[in-house]
Amino acid sequence: MSFRKTLKPVAVALGMLFATAPLAALADSLSVKIGFAAPLTGANAGYGKDLEYGVRLALDEANAQQIKIGGKVAHFDLVSEDDQADPRIGVQAAQKLVDQNVSVVVGHFNSGTTIPASRVYETAGIPMIDPAATNPVITGQGFANTFMVISTDAQNAGNAGIYAVEVTKAKRIAILDDRTAFGQGEADEFEKAVKAHGGNLVTHEFTSNQAVDFRTQLTKIKAADADLLFFGGLDTQAASVAKQMKQLGLKAQLVGGGGVMDPEFIKLAGDAADGAMAWEYGRPLAQLPGGKDFSQKFKKQFGVDILSYAPFGYDAAWAAIKAMEAAKSPVPATYRPALKSISFDGVTGHIAFDSNGALKNAASTLYQVKGGTWVPIVTKGGS
């Protein structure tokens, strides 16, 4: 028998082996679509990208670990939609994710966008894990598919109101909010807490989330002789409020809610930032067991520091992954019970949900700008 005749069947056999190997590998793998929605363009895009990076980091780690779901190695693919922080577009983004057959959605960022989008996911039977929006209405709707890995405004702004009365001992408290579902929501919760604990509210002023000039409202607040001002809104506007307070000679203690405690506020407010306070969701990342490691991995992979909510996006993604792994299925109806009973230590703290999908034992922390940096003062709640 010639060498050529011997080689031919061997080559055919090898060809068949390599041809079938990819098919076998494909049969043993499982593609899982993870939806994500947040503002990726516009004024809130920085928050959106920060969240998206957190989710992406979780998926990259899960893919590297070759996690098995139902005996198959899962590959998690991120499907992102830009909701532009607009409720109408948010609903459209939600429907696009539903139409793409995602197994879960991590999102959104703004409460005003999250609330209507949650109804789309509820109708479709797809779990939404909220990493940033904080209005209590979100988990107060009684939906089976809504979950939060972050504390609500009732918890965070409620703590702010109690602290203003009982610790800061403010005698004449004022509020200014941006009239969004988020800003108004946290301002209302702050007001409830102040009044419930015997505090004196002298005025509640309003603006819009597009405004840049707050001197009319601040002049009224100054005339009311307020010694503490709670601002319900995000970092950019809070920085302008701080600068205009200084220009007007308004000496009241500025206290922000969520979305204020970040480097952008200090950068924009300049020397007016010093002494400002803000209540932020969760515990200080640096004080958590995995916080330092997460920060380093994040910076190494994306080349930027964490802005604010990336760790919550990371934990939201892992909550879904762990539930699918436990249920041995990425099908929402199958893994939803596992998600409802999930319990694990995330980078932001312990993750477990109450009967409404809200985070159990949620924490919030008061920070103050000292020497050009945010310094944690006290943490309330958590476990």
Automatic annotation (TrEMBL):
Transmembrane segments: none annotated. It comes from the Bacteria. Residues 1-24 form the signal peptide. One of its GO terms (biological process) is amino acid transport. CDD domains: PBP1_ABC_LIVBP-like. Keywords: Amino-acid transport, Signal, Transport. The keyword Transcription does not apply. The keyword ATP-binding does not apply. Residues 31-372 form the Leucine-binding protein domain. InterPro entries: Leu-bd (IPR028081), Leu_Ile_Val-bd (IPR000709), Peripla_BP_I (IPR028082). Belongs to the leucine-binding protein family. This is Branched chain amino acid ABC transporter substrate-binding protein. It comes from Paraburkholderia acidicola.
